[in-house]
Amino acid sequence: MWTQLVLGVMLSTTAWSVPNPTIRYDGHKVLQILPKTIEDVHELLSLAKKYHLDIWKSPRYLNETFDVRVDPEQITDFVNDIEALGLKANHWITDVQKLIDEISSGRNRRATFSIGAFNDHASINAYLDSLASANPHVTVHTMGNSYEGRAIKYVKISNNLGVNKKAIYADGGIHAREWLAVTTVLYFIDQIANNPSRDRTIDALLGKFDFYFAPVVNPDGYEYSRSHDRMWRKNRRPVISGCNGVDLNRNFAYHWNPDNGGSRNPCEEVHAGTHATSEIETKHLQNFLCSHSNLIAYLNVHTYGQYWIYPWGYTPILPTDYRDLDHLGRSAATAIRHTHGRTFTVGEDTRVLYAAAGGADDYAKGACGVKYSYTVELRDTGLHGFVAPTSYIIPAGEETFAGFKAFATELVHYEHL
Ligand SMILES: [Zn+2]
What we know:
The chain is α/β, with parallel strands linked by helices. It has helices at residues 2-12, 38-50, 75-84, 96-105, 121-134, 179-194, 200-206, 219-227, 280-291, 322-340, 360-366, 393-414; strands at 29-33, 54-57, 66-70, 89-93, 138-145, 151-157, 166-171, 209-214, 238-240, 243-244, 295-303, 307-310, 345-348, 372-378. The longest helix is centred in the C-terminal third of the chain and has 22 residues, at 393-414. It starts with a helix and ends with a helix. GO terms for molecular function: metallocarboxypeptidase activity; zinc ion binding. Residues 1-17 form the signal peptide.
């Protein structure tokens, strides 16, 4: 029966239709609150739990905002509680549905895949297949299937020269609603496979590395965010009656702990699963990461907040080689700033404020030994938040790819590759 269901979803969300998610967010606001102390952050987190709010951005450092989506019925009580703490709630996005509608009207209406559009999952997979058949440097593979049976595909881009090349891997879409992460990984694929500007840096990097890219590692969630709920974050496996999905980026089997930045409650956005690797998508990704022993670097791409951060997510204690990760992260951030002027913060995942155990970056480094493992949070800093407009796709691709090239180039020098 579910096959019919999947087919129905796929048919209704092809690239040439303009999907309109059925769940609406009329009158929902995103509030930005600036905590003054670490205690304020903890108070805000427990208030968000009390009201079951959707946290858009939790500060990783002091002087950063806490962004949270609030529905119209809760706003008065929540703002009163915020003010009782001596804090001020800035009404940042005044109507989430209006933002979603703006993006829908700019959605790709063409029948073909486009690098500059938010494409559906079937079109993305078809694009990867066509790229592989047209380009001798590209091969397409499947990590496995998602819970609802969608193929989680990745490409390998290699010029096949030289032996024992190190490899760099990047993936997107582990969180369903973070569509800009998907488009940015696709942008990387297009740039490296097709090299449209005949960039010699790309040729040089292909002489040093093999590249792996998986644009959509949570395809069920991605399609659901297109067809039903633009704010969906998790995968789609039914966990208990009425509540589906596990936050895949809390489900990895390295220091997995739902009480450390996740949740045991299946109805919450950050539900970590009943045990580590409870989800088939997590399992496929773990297998991929640990079975490619030549991987030296991994980027787990998300939106938003503009960070280039490294493990650990589960503890504020730094890895012993953090200086190496920090140095290369700074190379990336400098190149990003020189592209469109955006500032990315480089640092450890956790620091004091934001612990989250069970993340993909911790697993890659801790369990598989991928030394340069990062979580990259793309633009912006809250203006559109998760509802990135179509006009962001190309500039976000450009700036992040500039960071990626600088990172990989510096990696060659730094590790004497
Ligand atoms: Zn994310």
